[in-house]
Structure formats: C-alpha cells, structure tokens
Amino acid sequence: MTMPGTVRAAQVLLFVMVGLVALRIALAGDPEKAGEITGASFPVIIGFVCALRFGKSKSRTTTIVAASLMIAIAFHAMGQGQPAGLVDLVIGITIVVLLSLRQSAQWFHRARS
C-alpha cells in the first residue's frame, strides 16, 4: 500500500516547518534569541524526526502529539505579538487533521511484511 496523499502532505508540512525553523535561527542574529527559537521549536524537531520514520511504529501518534504542542506554543507566540505564531498554528492544526483522517490511520495500521 502506497503512502496516501494526506500522510505525504503532513510529511511535507513537517519538512517545511523545519526549514522555517532553520531560517528563523539563521536570521536571529543573537545566540540567545537563536536558543529561544530552538527551544520553542522542539516539537517541530520531534515531528520532523517522526516524518522521516513515517510507516514505522508509533510515528503517527508521536507526530500528532508534537503537532499539538506546536499549536500550544503557537498560541503563546501569538499572545506575545509574534506573527510567526499564526503560521505555526495553521500548519500544526493542518498536520493534526491530516494525520487524524481515517485514510491516514488505515495506512499507519496496515499489515507490514
């Protein structure tokens, strides 16, 4: 069974998020600010590692939890007046929705040889 489009879309979104985090760190200019960004982006890094392992045991559940943490951190960022929080919020919600669909669940729970 090939990876459904919903799972592939969630995987690509996680890759994009890691790219955005790397860009934010590169543009931070201050090592302390870069450290703050890295710490706040920990769920994105976890999600990225899971996206590399899609199809393996527990990667779907871990990715949904990581995306949920992304959503919580995005709300905090928006509360601090950071516009990037809105992007993180939308992508986090999209990842949770895509991986929660029946088609995605069936692919993750398929029989493996």
Record keyword descriptors for this entry.
113 residues
Word description of this protein:
- With 113 residues, the protein is mostly helical.
- Helix content is 80%, strand content 0%.
- It has helices at residues 5-28, 31-40, 42-52, 59-79, 84-100, 102-108.
- Helix 1 (5-28) packs antiparallel against helix 5 (84-100).
- The protein is elongated.
- The N and C termini lie close together (11 Å).
> What is the typical, i.e. mean, pLDDT?
91
User: How do the SSEs run, as a string of H and E?
Assistant: HHHHHH
Percent of sequence in beta strands: under 5%
Uncertain segments of ≥5 residues (pLDDT<50)? none
Task: Report the radius of gyration as a whole number of Å.
Answer: 15 Å
Quick take:
This protein is mainly alpha-helical and 113 residues long.
What's the helix and strand layout?
Elements: H1 5-28, H2 31-40, H3 42-52, H4 59-79, H5 84-100, H6 102-108
